[in-house]
Structures are given as C-alpha cells and as structure tokens.
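User: tokens in, sequence out, please.
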C-alpha cells in the first residue's frame, strides 16, 4: 500500500493507474473506490474497504480529521489519532492507497484567524436543519465541503460510506445528485461490537463504566422498532427511554422514528418505504450516535 500526503502525488498516482488500466483493458475504465475516514480506524471502517475491494480495481482511503465539520473545538482537539496503526490496518485490509494530508494541504494556509473553508457554506434544505444538523450547526456544510474537494481531487467512481452515520449518507447522496458528481454512493451496514454497541472511533474515549452502559443505545433502538408496530412513535420513544436510558449518566439528545429519505419524523413505519430509528446520546462527555433501519413490509 502506498501512503500519499499531497494532492499532487495522489493525482499523479491515480492518473498513472487510469492510463495503465485503460491500456490493458481497452474500452473498460478503471473503477476507483474511495473510503473517506477521520482515522482511529476500527473494523467498521475496514468493512468499507472490503466492500470497495469487491467492486473496484483500486481502493483509496483518506485519513483526515476535517476541521470544518467540527462545531466544537474540544471535540476536534480530543478526536483520537492513531496514524501508524491506521496505516497497518488499511494495508492489512488490502487498501491500495492511504491518503493522509495535512489541513493546509486540503484547505491552503489560513491567514489571520480565518476558519478553513469558511467562505463556502452548503445547505441541504430539510435534511441539515434537524437531528445532527440542529445539534451540530455547520457540521454537514463542513462534511459536504471536504467531500466535494476530495471528489474533485480523486475523481472516484464509487464512494463507500457507513449507514452508521445515516443522516450523513443522506446528505452525501443529495450532494452527489445536486452537484452532478459522476459517482455511485454505496451505503455499508453498521458493524457492531458483540454487545451491540456500534463501532466508533469515539468509543475509546468512554470510561470502563460508561462503556459498560453504552449498549443501552442499541437496546433502545430495538425497543422503538418493536414498539412502533403497536403504538405511536412518540410513545415508543418515551417507553424506550424510560426502560433503557433512565440512568442519569445518559443525556438523550434525540430518539426518533423518521422517514428513510427525508428524515422527517413519522408516527408509524411507512409500509412501502420502511423507517429509520435515529438516536444521539451524551454519555460520559462523549456524544454517541446510532440508528436502526426498519425495512419496508
Ligand atoms: P469516520 O472516521 O467516523 O468519519 O467514519 C468514516 C466512515 O466510516 C463513515 O462513512 C462512517 O459512516 C463509517 N463508519 C463509522 N463507523 C462505522 C461502523 N461501525 N460500521 C460501518 N461503517 C462505519
């Protein structure tokens, strides 16, 4: 696996690959799979690499803690960083290229106190003003900005993203459609620990006591999915909170049943579209998010 730190080196490498592939396969063009990450990698990230390898002849993973998507400086400062381990894990998973740029490489040197990329803002009407969007103002704008830049730099044919960040996946699908990026967005199922906790880079920040309580998020999601077949979503969420998240160590930001496309709150799963249960909870100073997809009937 090659480790690349500059845009120019990455573009040079990918151009050479595209040319060689075309020379070898004639009319067929190379499938370049892209797995964007913020590092501190775990098996969930590696499942995205595996999904990309199944379809693509070249897989590039980026490891970049994107400053523009953090509205909370402390969260950014505390974000875990394990670059050597990330390189080993990506190489072991069969990734072809790890792109590990600095913030200056992506955003240019910032003069004065300007926040990188603050001159461009994205809005995703209806999608970014609720759930993560209302709890983390500017978050999805920063995600859309960095991904737009990375899509232009790499020109991937496929991007692999986790269903774990369900709203992010919906925003990226809208970004790709609205800006005519010529690439397929592939959503990959959430990898969980044996006790049900969704794998996340933030889990390492949980104390042992908090880690032991964290599976309650998944239990609450399952309760809502089960209860919503019989009672209204509002009642289902209330009951799930009382049953699983009553411990004062939990601060529930939201727990809701939503439509799978526009993420608007609904009271019952839509028989033809299904539904998604979304949750965000503060536990031990760490904000955890998760979701459960309810398939259509
Ligand atoms: P992050 O490094 O947290 O920005 O995540 C990078 C990508 O990995 C995103 O597309 C996430 O949705 C995805 N991801 C994170 N956790 C998981 C998980 N437990 N299972 C599958 N994909 C995940």
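Assistant: Sequence out:
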């Amino acid at each position: 696996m090659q480790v690349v730190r500059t845009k120019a080196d990455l573009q040079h490498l990918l151009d050479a690959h595209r040319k060689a592939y075309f020379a070898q396969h004639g009319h067929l063009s190379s499938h370049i799979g892209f797995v964007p990450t913020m590092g501190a990698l775990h098996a969930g990230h590696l499942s995205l690499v595996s999904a990309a390898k199944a379809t693509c002849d070249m897989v590039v993973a980026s490891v970049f803690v994107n400053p523009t998507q953090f509205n909370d400086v402390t969260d950014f400062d505390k974000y875990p960083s394990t670059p050597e381990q990330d390189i080993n894990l990506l190489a072991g998973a069969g990734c072809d290229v790890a792109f590990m740029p600095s913030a200056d490489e992506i955003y240019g040197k910032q003069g004065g106190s300007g926040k990188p990329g603050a001159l461009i803002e994205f809005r995703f009407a209806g999608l970014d003003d609720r759930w993560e969007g209302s709890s983390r103002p500017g978050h999805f704008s920063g995600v859309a900005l960095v991904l737009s830049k990375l899509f232009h730099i790499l020109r991937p044919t496929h991007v692999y993203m986790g269903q774990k960040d369900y709203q992010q996946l919906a925003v990226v699908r809208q970004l790709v459609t609205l800006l005519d990026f010529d690439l397929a967005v592939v959503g990959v199922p959430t990898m969980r620990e044996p006790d049900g906790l969704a794998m996340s880079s933030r889990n390492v920040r949980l104390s042992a006591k908090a880690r032991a309580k964290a599976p309650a998020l998944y239990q609450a999601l399952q309760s809502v999915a089960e209860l919503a077949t019989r009672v209204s979503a509002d009642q289902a969420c209330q009951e799930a909170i009382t049953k699983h998240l009553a411990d004062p160590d939990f601060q529930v930001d939201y727990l809701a049943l939503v439509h799978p496309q526009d993420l608007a709150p609904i009271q019952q799963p839509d028989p033809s579209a299904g539904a998604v249960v979304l949750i965000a909870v503060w536990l031990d100073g760490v904000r955890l998010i998760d979701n459960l997809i309810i398939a259509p009937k």
